[in-house]
Amino acid sequence: YTLLAIPFFLLSGAFMTTGGVAQRLIDFANACVGHIRGGLAISAVMACMLFAALSGSSPATVAAVGSIAIAGMVRSGYPQAFGAGIVCNAGTLGILIPPSIVMVVYAAATEQSVGKLFMAGVIPGLLLGVALMVAIYIVARKMDLPAMPRASLRQLLTTARKAVWGLLLMVIILGGIYSGMFTPTEAAAVAAVYAGFVALFVYKDMTIRECPKVLLDSGKLTIMLMFIIANAMLFAHVLTTEQIPQTITAWVIEMGLQPWQFLLVVNVVLLVAGAFMEPSAIILILAPILFPIAVQLGIDPIHLGIIMVVNMEIGLITPPVGLNLFVTSAVTGMPLTAVIKAAWPWLMLLLGFLMIITYVPAVSMALPNWLGMN
Fold first, then answer.
1. Is 80 exceeded by the pLDDT of residue 76?
2. Nearest by Cα to 102 from 229, 243, 16, 213
3. Is the distance from CB of 112 to CB of 288 less than 8 angstroms?
4. DSSP line for 290-346
5. How far apart are CA 228 and CA 262, in angstroms?
6. How far, CA to CA in Å, does 317 sit from each of 84, 223, 255?
7. 149-173 tens-digit pLDDT
8. Is-above-0.85 flag for pTM?
9. Contact of 32 with 43, CB cutoff 8 Å
């Protein structure tokens, strides 16, 4: 039942991508921060954060924001590689800022609360977004990148009014889940209906005739993802039947690993796996193995979930199978090797962020604990 949220979130993202929401979010972000040195790049990160709260998918975030933002940066005098590297990295926020398809998969694999995972992803997502913005500002000052003229209050309010229908979606999803109005799966269904309504009748960027194509595209993506998930679940079932997780748990406990040592090993394993496999498959195969060990060592399962998601973010921009690299290459026309080179410096920032998330659990757990989601 939990996995039913995936096709609905994918459909919601498809409506939002087709419906021109990304352009409105970018315009709003430009009006907010475009006047800062390197403002176009900072606004691209802000747009990725906002779109991440609508789509739940990193590649979708890169495709929607990157196709518009990178071209805008190049026209304003930014190096194309600079823009590509930023959007490729900022796009990973698609699976950290809720709603997140990868979080739904982790919740299904470990029987944890999707709502609690969503809330746990809010502060880390905002923190990573702000860290990227600060890093961009520092680099932009050194490179003497241009800034846009400051937007007037009227322009800011106009862009906010145009973007508000898209921004309301995250309020509906998170507000509805936290208030108990609906479950995460029901929230995904509501999001899909709302996104379709906004694209068709509010923004009017698409017609009824285009609906079958959107449904077909999201259906293809759902089938592909569900096929991967089904095979991964089958493999996980075999592991459980053979009691491999229990054996590994007993072995790790006997070794006397400290929690910090265990988490270091987890990060290394996930970073290697992330370079070669799809995030949902990794979660479904490794979560049932790592989960019981973490519980035995006193590590909060929700904290472990956020650690796994951040590792999956890094996997999306790590060759040879980093999906965000391929999407960025497709939307910019740059060779894959050039995209990898452009994304590499910003990857160092993500690795530093991973260490903070791993060893400062309060970053992930502060909001769920404050909301009393125990």
1. yes
2. 229
3. no
4. HHHHHHHTT--HHHHHHHHHHHHHHHTTSTTT-HHHHHHHHHH---HHHHHHHHHHH
5. 28
6. 12, 23, 33
7. 888 888 889 988 888 888 888 888 8
8. yes
9. yes
